[in-house]
Amino acid sequence: MRSLYYRSFLALVCAFAIVHNVLCEEPGTRYLRQELKGDTRNLSKGKGGSSSSRSKGKGSIYSKSQKSSKSPDSKGGKFGKGKGIKSRKSPKSKGKGWKGIKSSKSPKSKEEDGKGSKSNKSYGKGKGSKSDKSSKSSKSYKGAKSSKSPKHGKSYKGGAPTISEPDPALTPSPTPGVGPTRPPTKTSSPTKAFVITSAPTKAPVVSPPTICGRTEEERVAFISAIISGMAASNLLNDPNSPQGKAAQWLINDDPIALCPDSSVQIVQRFALAVFYYSTDGDRWSFCRTTTGPCPSNAQRFLSDSSECEWFGIECNPSNGRVLSLRLDTLDGQDINLNGILPPEVFLIPRITDVRLYFTPDVNDQNNVRQGRLSGTIPATINQASQLRALDIDSQNISGEIPNEFYQSTLREVDLDNNSLTGTISSNVQNMNNLIFFTASDNPFDQQPIPVGFGNIPQLRFLGLNNANLVGPIPNSLSNLREIRAIDFSNNDLTGNISFLRNYNNLQSIALANNRLSGDIPAEFWQKNNLTIANLENNNLSGQIAPSIGSMTDLRTLRLARNNMSGTIPVEMANLTNLRVLTLEGNNFTGDIPAELCALRFLEIITVPPTVNCPRICCVTVPNP
Question: Contact 555/532 with Cβ under 8 angstroms?
Fold first, then answer.
């Protein structure tokens, strides 16, 4: 009996031991067993269970190094769905990802259908899991590899962020060695499992493919949002428009690969890229993106250098803000801008100078006198809050001057030799900073000289030559006490020139080829700062006053074809800098003083037949 009890007791002990080996197995041993099966995500729930506590997303954290898929449509700006801007190929996320940021495409957990889950290829093809194909890598930041990554070159201070990828030497082997002795411990900080150390004791974790701490999808969305405020969505979505090309370049091809928080650089590089594509930059004479001559002290447009180093760009060295866009000439040769002046140029936040004038080729047999930069003056000009100079001389800008132009902060304006129409508004008086304004040689509609110019007391230069002006010169112009030069030639102006009386600082006056009349004011002959005076082809009368002898800076005096009379004062011999004197077509009499003919720099004197002058000094021109 005692033997029977003893045998029964031994049977119970053995049964308990068997059960204990199954239910009370060392946690580390169970983890190792699961790993051998290749199912590291189902440690607690078995086949079809949820992910390990080390991963909060629905996909395996190891899948973040896998080959990324195309980025979804950006929703950060005006980029529509799949139109226009193609982002860098970036992963999609269907889980929460890393720290709330959308992660790259990872396998879906298949808890519901009980089919198991996908795991990284490096864990083999254990039962209940599918291996994930490893990604093909291309060059990325600082030697790291990521799928379909952008090109990267020089970066701004601090360098571009690094996209990390697991070291193959740290990738777990399909056949584990010494496994952990304890199961992973759940903690309140899941990020600890994502840290890769130099000698990991646990399975390594691949950092998500991010740039600037964001996924590529988020980066595209942020950049899209910034530039969508600079250009219309239909232009940004048009891959053939300058704006669309610039957006594609900035997002996909810019070697700098700017971060969204570099908003100033994004705006500057986008605006300059639009300018490049809008003016047919690939045909510029200098510093095209890939070919053509370029000065040694400048970088090519759209290169991997800072935009401050690009040809024709000047920046504030302390903060990298673009101040000047100057693409006019190099060594006397024109840059060959061909296209439309884009509005984005004036959205560069701190830009002060835009100089894009055309320089005619003196050897050009076709006598081309205008460039091929066309379009209109952009209405965005008033958004350049620090703009000081606009020089588009001898281009082919057309249309009317927009109202926004008169709301700008411009100090210097050169619109000469374009195709502008309409009229110059009297709102020009609102340009309180204006000191230089010229819009000569434009086919404006017929109009009088705008009275508003007389309300800009600091104005120093006013040029409206061949601008279809009619009527008298307004008296308000006599308020321009700081004026240095006026050019109203080749118009249909009438009335007198009494407005000249108050101009004590006048250095140059050109009123030729009008219908001006009346006596030349006596004060005119006392303008000691005057160097050039062209009053030809009018109906002016009066005499040359002896006080002209004090005008010692005078180099050119053109009085031909008027109704002047009297003799030539001997005091003119004091004009030691005189080079040109035209007197024909008037009623002058007497002799040219011999001292005048002896002037050192004198090149020519033309006189009517009624004036006696040695042939070696003068050219006699018959009256018309």
Answer: yes
